[in-house]
Amino acid sequence: MLPATLAQDIRQQVIHYLEATFNFRRRDDEEALRRFINDPENGLFKGPWVQIRRPFRPAADHGNRFFDLPVPFLPFRHQWLAWRRLTSKGQEPASTLITTGTGSGKTECFQVPILDHCYRENRAGRKGIKAIILYPMNALAADQAGRFAEEIFRTPALCWGTGPTRKARIRVGLYTGRFDPANPNRVSEGAVSEMKIEMDGEVEKVYRAITDQQMLQDQPPDILLTNYKMLDFLLMRPKDKAIWRYNRKGTLRYLVLDELHTYDGAQGADVACLIRRLKERLDIAQGELCCIGTSATIAAGDDETTQDPLARLADFAGRLFEEPLQPECVIGEDRLTVEEILRAPLADFTPVPAPGDCRAREGETAPEFARRIAPRFGAPAFPTDDGITLFPGQLPPGDDTPETRWTLALGQWIRSQPLFASLLEATRDGPRTWSELVAQVAAADPALRAVPEFGARSEVLSAFFALVAQARESRRKASSPLAGEGGGEGAELLPPRPLTPTQVQLWIRELRRLGRLVSDQPVFGWLDEQRPDQRILPVAHCTECGESVWVAMVDPDSENPIQARGVQGFQLIADVARIYQGWGFERPMSKWMVALSPWYPDDDAAPAQGALEIAEWHLSKDSLVLRLGPGPCPLTGSPTFRVRMNRDTRTQAAGQTVGAVKCPHCRSDDSLMFIGA
């Protein structure tokens, strides 16, 4: 999938579906709906929004001084800062809130210090639960339990033995699932009683944590992953008290709440009380428990405008954990600057192919498209005969493939391109709409600006954006911000990562509660948006003739005042909730329902089914008074326009009169379908 064109394709497919579903009989109705759907401010779509995220800043060193266990990778700076606070080596770990974005390695921020702490405690012979990690969803807890198990089995100091049968020194338990009061001793099928490695032939495929609840009771784990409901059971049920039998004062050192922002309202109050009960049960005083919260919804910064949100986050977390937390406990993300990503000197210009060459072929995947289009921009061709020269270094086993080498070479090339520099600069301060991005990059890049017309420029930039999405970088196990900047051909590299992760977001509003303004000209709008100077009614579409139809209700108390002025007619009720309720849907329709549509001069040339309509109805768009015959509104004197009207009823077997509204144009039964009811 090509990221920049995918959003446009989705948009077009949605539009085609709506146009096919609501096939109006009049072209001006179709054009009015199309204008409404595509309105950039008030329509169905917002965006697409495009963002190129800059890589996270690597730390200056591995942070090995914080731990007894070796650190197998060069951390990001925010991970290094978290480790400095959270390590228990030679200090009391400090409560920390981690607010970095998705994919930033928040798990490693607390995983490494917790495993290192458990390693020292295990060597000292201390049993009991040393860390509790709460997740809002069981699926997330299960995934993270596998990650903990994998890290333990991949770290020799945390295992006994070698090969796939090696045993874990640090035990991780996953305690989730529904509690059945009728069978409290039930063990779920497939429960794992011992941490293990599952093989796929000769390859280690899956790493399992302990899920057998009885085994967790018999031999409490070092690290417990669960949710707040199950932790409540563990503190409350007599059968579960054995899990705490090794926990003395100071045994539990870490409490982690993942997705901290989800613990608000009633759930937040429940969790706050639960944490207080946990501390009381295990005799933990304030300041003796290292509390950790993670959230990707708040980004920290250094400017003064961000300090208030950080202070409020620290205050919220402090009340939740019952710990005094200050804004300095919040660790946010730190990304490389545009200048640090680019590789000087930049090329004089980026070659720009013809717009016609920048279109994806039928069935072509994003990697296939990128490999085909790359030489047209002057990028390395695939396969690269000199891939080692273009990107020297020793890749991890399984990653050293021609495809990976090419994406790394592409990343090296793209960092020296002026067009890439313009893209980074355009998205430096946040997302841009695609149209804004094309205009801004074209203004900065002469080669793209030389391409005539917006559509052609958009195709060229979309193709280049596909190259950016494929470009990779691999940090060395050293302090260079990006690999390829020294270190020698034999330098060992980490698994490749996107050079600059690309994000394309298209927001699609739910097509619900759509209306049409009361006017002789077709204009659509949202019923929920107030228009003090314009009336709007729910709109339906006739599946037989394609008529655009207003749906309303008659105000039964309005007929007498209107007739008192010598006019036959009634006033309509515009209350949307009452109209939808009166329509009935799954129950009989109200007898006060009415359907209307504008009358057009050519309508009489095509008679409706049955007898010709003789009565002429006229509607006031201001007062919603419907009168028989031409003339102004009898109540306000406002002008009216001619409409077709149907308010048929039928009598049920029990004698009750109910509505049987038909299309006012073709008089078909059961043919009206609300647009976005």
Tell me what you see in this structure.
With 677 residues, this protein is α+β, with helices and mostly antiparallel strands. It is globular and about 100 Å long.
Summarize this structure briefly:
The chain is α+β, with helices and mostly antiparallel strands. It contains 19 helices and 28 strands.
List keywords for this structure.
30% helix; Rossmann fold; 7-stranded parallel sheet; alpha+beta; 17% strand; 677 residues; 19 helices; 6-stranded antiparallel β-barrel; globular
The major β-sheet equals:
7 strands, parallel
What's the CATH topology name of the largest domain?
A: Rossmann fold
Mind telling me which CATH architecture of the largest domain this is?
3-Layer(aba) Sandwich
Quantity of strands, as a count: 28
Mean pLDDT: 89
User: Which stretches of 5+ consecutive residues score pLDDT under 50?
Assistant: 179-185, 300-306, 478-490
Outline? globular
CATH top level class name of the largest domain: Alpha Beta
How far apart are the termini?
Answer: 33 Å
The helix content is: 25-40%
Briefly note the structural class of the backbone.
alpha+beta
Computed CA radius of gyration, to the nearest angstrom? 33 Å
- How many discrete domains? 3
| Number of helices, counting only DSSP H or I runs of 4 residues or more | 19
Query: Beta-strand percentage?
Result: 15-25%
Kindly report the name of the CATH homologous superfamily of the largest domain: P-loop containing nucleotide triphosphate hydrolases
Major sheet: order of its strands?
6-9-3-10-11-2-12
